[in-house]
Design goal:
The protein is α+β, with helices and mostly antiparallel strands and 453 residues long. It has helices at residues 14-20, 62-70, 94-100, 140-156, 179-194, 217-227, 277-289, 291-309, 348-355, 366-374, 430-449; strands spanning 3-10, 28-30, 41-45, 50-54, 86-91, 113-118, 120-125, 130-137, 174-175, 200-210, 232-238, 241-247, 250-254, 261-264, 267-272, 318-327, 331-341, 363-364, 386-391, 396-399, 404-410, 413-424. It has a single domain (3-452), classed as 4-Layer Sandwich (Anthranilate synthase), CATH 3.60.120. The strands form 2 sheets. Strands 1, 2, 3, 7, 8, 9, 10, 11, 12, 18, 21 and 22 form a 12-stranded antiparallel sheet that branches. Strands 4, 5, 6, 13, 14, 15, 16, 17, 19 and 20 form a 10-stranded antiparallel sheet that branches. The radius of gyration is 21 Å and the shape is globular. The chain starts with a strand and ends with a helix.
Length: 453
C-alpha cells in the first residue's frame, strides 16, 4: 500500500494553470464549470509515471492493460478530493467496435485507447475556492515529494492576460459533411428503422479545418471555458495529437466513498437557445413536451440500465431522474439519470468496459446501431468516445465526447475535426435533424471563428 500526501494551497484559476503545461505530452486537465455537485472539481495533471497506448493493431486487450496499469484499490484519504491519483486518458469510439466484435474501419490518426498513470494531481475545489496537491509514493517522503512537485507547477504557472475572444483560431470552419449529404444519410437510416433493423441511431456529420498560425489546441479549450463552460470540459495532449472537449454529458461515475455508487446521465433531446427570454422559454417547454424526444430518451435510458446491470447486483439499477431539462450556453438538453452500485468484485474499469461505447451516441440495439452508423460515417476517433479518470481509491468519472475536437499535428500546424450528431427514430425529419446538428456545433464554430463567426 502506497502512502498519500495532501498539501493545501490558495485558489488559482485551473485553466491558467493547465495552460502553462498544455503543450507537454500527456498533459491532461478536467476543467469543470464549477456548477453544482457534478461541476465542483477540476483536475490538472502532468508528468505521468507510466503511459499506455493501444493502437488498432495492438493485440493487447485495452481494459485488461488499464487494470494492470492502475493496480489494486488503495484506500483514499478521507479529506481528499474524489480523484487522488490513478489512471486517466482517452477511449476512442472505435474501441467499442472491438469490444462488441463488430467489423469497423479504424481511424488512421488515433489509437483505440491512450491513458497514463498519474501519481500526482492538482485538484481545484470550486466550492471552497482552494487547491489540493495530491502525491502518492512508496513511503511518506516520496508521496510528499510528488505533492510538492505538483504544488510547484501551481505556483510557477504564470498569470495569463484575458484571452482575445475576437481573434480567429482558424481561417475557416468548413463542413466536411454537407447538409445535403447528411439529410440523405438521415433519410436512409430512417428507412432502416422503419424496416425494423434498429429502433434508434445517432448519426453525426463532420466539420474541420486548420488552426491559424500560432494557435494551439488549448487556446480553444480556454476560449470555450470562458464563453460557454460545461461540467465535463477536458483536455488531453498526446504526442502529435490533442483532444479538446466541452462536453455537458457524464458517461459513467463511481463514488470514491466506499459505497461504489454508480451513475450515468444520458442526454437525448435538444433545442437551441432562443433569441430572447420569451422564445428561449418556449423552446424549453417544447422540448419538455415533445413525445419524440421523450421516447428517444427513454430508449437510451433502458439501454444504459442494461449496460449498468452487467456490473451491478440484480435489482440495484434504477432511474432516479427522468426527462430533466439542463440548459447550456447554446442549447437545452433532455437528461435522465440512471443509478446503481457496483457488485462485489467489480471495479470502475469493469464499468467502463461494460458500458462502452456510450449508448446515447450509438443507439438501440447498440451493436446493430454501431453497424448502421459505420455505413454512413467514417471513423469517429475521439468523437463519441470518452475522457475519463479512474482513481486508486476505486472512484471514477468520465464524459461522453460530444462538443469535442480532435487535433493532429501536421506540417508545422494543427489540423482539426469536430462532429455533431442527432438521435434518429422512426419519425425523424432530415431537415430538422440537420438543424439540430448545426445548433449543437454552433458554440465550437463561434469559438473557432471569433469575430468572424
Amino acid at each position: 500500500m502506497r502512502e498519500i500526501a495532501l498539501l493545501k494551497a490558495a485558489w488559482r484559476d485551473p485553466v491558467e494553470v493547465a495552460a502553462a503545461g498544455a503543450d507537454a505530452p500527456w498533459a491532461m486537465a478536467f476543467l469543470s464549470d464549477g456548477s453544482g455537485a457534478r461541476g465542483r472539481w477540476s483536475y490538472v495533471m502532468a508528468d505521468p509515471a507510466r503511459t499506455l497506448e493501444v493502437g488498432p493493431d495492438d493485440p493487447r486487450e485495452p481494459f485488461r492493460a488499464m487494470r494492470e496499469l492502475l493496480g489494486p484499490t488503495e484506500a483514499p484519504a478521507a479529506e481528499g478530493p474524489p480523484f487522488q491519483g490513478g489512471i486517466a486518458g482517452l477511449l476512442c469510439y472505435e474501441l467499442g467496435a472491438r469490444l462488441e466484435g463488430v467489423g469497423h474501419p479504424v481511424h488512421p490518426d488515433w489509437p483505440l485507447a491512450a491513458c497514463a498513470l498519474y501519481d500526482s494531481v492538482l485538484a481545484f475545489d470550486h466550492e471552497r475556492r482552494e487547491v489540493t496537491a495530491v502525491g502518492r509514493g512508496a513511503d511518506a517522503a516520496a508521496a510528499r515529494r510528488r505533492a510538492e512537485a505538483a504544488l510547484a507547477r501551481l505556483r510557477e504557472a504564470p498569470a495569463r492576460p484575458a484571452p482575445d475572444l475576437e481573434r480567429p483560431l482558424t481561417p475557416a470552419f468548413e463542413a466536411i459533411t454537407s447538409g445535403e449529404a447528411y439529410e440523405a444519410a438521415v433519410a436512409a437510416v430512417v428507412e432502416r428503422i422503419a424496416a425494423g433493423e434498429i429502433f434508434q441511431a445517432n448519426a453525426a456529420r463532420a466539420w474541420g479545418g486548420r488552426m491559424a498560425a500560432g494557435a494551439r489546441p488549448f487556446d480553444l479549450v480556454e476560449r470555450l471555458w470562458r464563453t460557454s463552460p460545461a461540467p465535463f470540459a477536458a483536455y488531453l495532449r498526446l504526442p502529435g495529437r490533442a483532444v479538446a472537449s466541452n462536453s455537458p454529458e457524464r458517461f459513467v461515475f463511481v463514488s470514491n466513498d466506499g459505497a461504489l455508487r454508480v451513475e450515468t446521465r444520458p442526454i437525448k433531446g435538444t433545442r437551441p437557445r432562443g433569441a430572447d427570454p420569451t422564445e428561449d422559454e418556449a423552446l424549453r417547454q417544447e422540448l419538455v413536451a415533445c413525445e419524440k424526444d421523450r421516447a428517444e430518451n427513454l430508449m437510451i435510458v433502458d439501454l444504459m440500465r442494461n449496460d449498468l446491470s452487467r456490473v451491478c447486483p440484480p435489482g440495484a439499477v434504477g432511474v432516479s431522474e427522468l426527462f430533466a431539462i439542463e440548459t447550456f450556453a447554446n442549447v437545452h438538453h433532455l437528461v435522465s439519470t440512471v443509478t446503481g452500485r457496483l457488485a462485489p468484485g467489480m471495479t470502475a474499469v469493469d464499468l467502463l468496459e461494460a458500458a462502452f461505447p456510450p449508448g446515447s451516441i450509438t443507439g438501440a440495439p447498440k451493436i446493430q446501431a454501431i453497424k448502421v452508423i459505420a455505413d454512413y460515417e467514417g471513423p469517429r476517433g475521439p468523437y463519441c468516445g470518452s475522457l475519463f479518470w479512474a482513481g486508486f481509491g476505486g472512484g471514477c468519472d468520465s464524459s461522453v465526447l460530444i462538443r469535442t475536437v480532435g487535433f493532429v499535428e501536421e506540417d508545422g500546424g494543427w489540423r482539426y475535426e469536430a462532429r455533431a450528431g442527432a438521435g434518429l427514430v422512426a419519425d425523424s425529419d432530415p431537415v430538422l435533424e440537420r438543424l439540430e446538428t448545426e445548433a449543437k456545433i454552433d458554440a465550437l464554430r463561434r469559438a473557432f471563428l471569433g469575430a468572424a463567426a
